[in-house]
Amino acid sequence: MFEDIKAIFKNDPAEKGLQWILYPGLHAITCHRYLAHPLYKAHLFFLARFVSQLNRFMTNIEIHPGAKIGKGLFIDHGSAIVIGETAVIGENCTLFHNVTLGGTGKHTGKRHPTIGDNVFIGTGATLLGPITVGSNVKIGAESVIIMHDIPSNCTVVGAPGRIVRLNGEKVDIKPERTKE
Amino acid sequence: MFEDIKAIFKNDPAEKGLQWILYPGLHAITCHRYLAHPLYKAHLFFLARFVSQLNRFMTNIEIHPGAKIGKGLFIDHGSAIVIGETAVIGENCTLFHNVTLGGTGKHTGKRHPTIGDNVFIGTGATLLGPITVGSNVKIGAESVIIMHDIPSNCTVVGAPGRIVRLNGEKVDIKPERTKE
Amino acid sequence: MFEDIKAIFKNDPAEKGLQWILYPGLHAITCHRYLAHPLYKAHLFFLARFVSQLNRFMTNIEIHPGAKIGKGLFIDHGSAIVIGETAVIGENCTLFHNVTLGGTGKHTGKRHPTIGDNVFIGTGATLLGPITVGSNVKIGAESVIIMHDIPSNCTVVGAPGRIVRLNGEKVDIKPERTKE
C-alpha cells in the first residue's frame, strides 16, 4: 500500500498534501489487495465477488477479485475501469479511467491481458484477450489492442493500435493478430 | 427475469455458483423491467425517471425508463452504459460496459437505435441515431456507428464501423450514411 | 444555476416537466459552482477535493475543484466524465457522457484544455493537453484530440480528430500537433 501511495506522488501533478487519502483509485486497489483478492485465493469466491462489487459501487472501478496486481499501481480518476479475472499487472504501472483489461468472450481459462512493469495505459484504452504486453510500454489514450502481443520498450497509439516508437526509434508497425 | 439469469450463465466464463445475484447488470435490467418501464408506460414519467436515476446511481447503468428491452439481455460489467428513451433491444442480446445507444441531438421523436435479436455489442461501442441493427450481429469493441443501418448476420468493427463479415463471408463494406 | 437549467430545456428532447431536478449533470455542476470551486479559490484544497470526490460518488461525474466553468453548461448522462484541474469551459457548452478534458501526463501548471463558447462535445470524446478549442465548435462522438488547437466555427470527427467543416464549408483538415 505504501508503494501505491508513492506512485500517486510520483505521477499526479494535481496532488496537494493529503489529498491522496481521497483517491478512489487508491481505495479500489487497497480493497482489492487486502480484502477481495485474499478472499478469492481462499476460495471464498462469493464473498470475494461481493467485496469486489461493493468496491465497484464505492469507487466505480471494477477489479475482479482474481486479478493479480503488482506493487506501485497508480489508478488516476478510475471511472469505468474494468480489470478481468485472469488479468495480471506488473509493478509500477499507471492506469487512467475507462481502461479495460478484458476478454473477447471467445476464450475460457486465461482470457485477459498480462501487463509487464512500468506500463502506462492512457484514458479509454481497451485491451482484450489473453495477450502479453511487455515492460516500459506506453499505450496512448483510446488505443484498441485486441488479440495480439505488444513487445517491451515501445509506444502504441490508435485504434487498432500501431507501434509508433520501439526501443527509442520512431517506427510504424501494425501488429498482426497472432492469436485467435 | 429468469431469461436474464440464464443469459448470464450462457455468456459469462467468470460466473461461479450464486454470484449472478451480485451482478449490477441484472439489477439494472430487473429494476428497469419491473419498475421504471411500467411506471413510464403508466405515464408516471417523473417517478419512472426517479427510479431510473436511482438505478443509475446503484448500478452505474443508465437505462431511460422509456427503452424497450427484449427478454434474455445480458449486461456485463455495465459501467457508463447509456440506453436512450426510444431505444429498442431485441431478445438474447449482450451489452458490455461503456456501450451507448444514444441520439445525435438532431432528432425528435424516435431518435435512438433499434437492435434486433442475438446481437452482441462490445465494450465501448457507440451507436447513435434512429438506426436499425439487424439480428445475429456482432459489433466489435469501440466501434462507432452513427446514422446508418446495419444488416442482419454480420460483424462490424472500427470507427467508423465497417462490415467485415456478412452471411459468413469475409467482406469489407463501409456503410453509407443513409439517414440525415 | 438558472442558466444551467435553461440549458437542459434547450438541449434535451427527453426532458418532461420537472425531471431536470433529477439530472446528475445539474447536480454535479451545481455542487462544483457553489461548493467545490469556491472552496478551492479559498485555498481550502483538501475540503474542496473532498467535496469533489463526494460529487463524483453521487453523480459519477468528476470535476476537479480547480476547473473554471462558464454559465449555461449542459451535461447529458455524464457517466465517467473527467474534467481536469486547469480546464476552462466557456458559456453555453454541452458535454455528453464519457468526455475527458484531461492532461497528457507530460505537463505541469496549465495542462488541460480551454474550451470556447457554444461548444458541443459528443459522447466519449477525449481532449488532452493544454490546448485551445475555439467557439461554435462541434466535436463528434468518440473523437480524440491530443496536443493541438481547434479553431472556431468548425466540426471535428474521428480519432485522431479531423476538421470536416470550417466556417460552413466542407473541408478535410488533419490538424498538426502544434504543441509538444
3D structure, described in words:
The structure is a homotrimer of 180-residue chains. Chain A has 180 residues and is of the alpha/beta class. Chain A is built from 3 helices and 16 strands. Chain A has helices at residues 2-11, 24-41, 45-59, and strands at residues 61-63, 68-69, 74-75, 81-83, 88-89, 94-95, 100-102, 114-115, 120-121, 126-128, 132-133, 138-139, 144-146, 154-157, 162-166, 169-173. In chain A, the strands form 3 sheets. Chain A has a 7-stranded mixed beta sheet with strand order 3-6-9-12-14-15-16. In chain A, a hairpin with a 2-residue loop joins strand 15 and strand 16 (169-173). In chain A, helix 2 runs antiparallel to helix 3 (45-59). Chain A is globular. The mean pLDDT of chain A is 93. Chains in contact: A-B, A-C, B-C. Chains A and C meet through loops of A and helix 3 of C.
Short key terms for the protein model shown above:
five-stranded parallel β-sheet; globular; 16 strands; homotrimer; seven-stranded mixed β-sheet; 180 residues; alpha/beta
Brief rundown of the structure:
With 180 residues, chain A is α/β, with parallel strands linked by helices.
Oligomer: homotrimer
Number of helices of chain A: 3
Q: Residue-averaged pLDDT of chain A, rounded?
A: 93
Shape of chain A: globular
Greatest interface by residues involved:
A-C, 27 and 33 residues
Secondary structure: number of strands of chain A: 16
* Low-confidence sequence ranges of chain A: none
Q: Major sheet of chain A: order of its strands?
A: 3-6-9-12-14-15-16
Structural class of chain A: alpha/beta
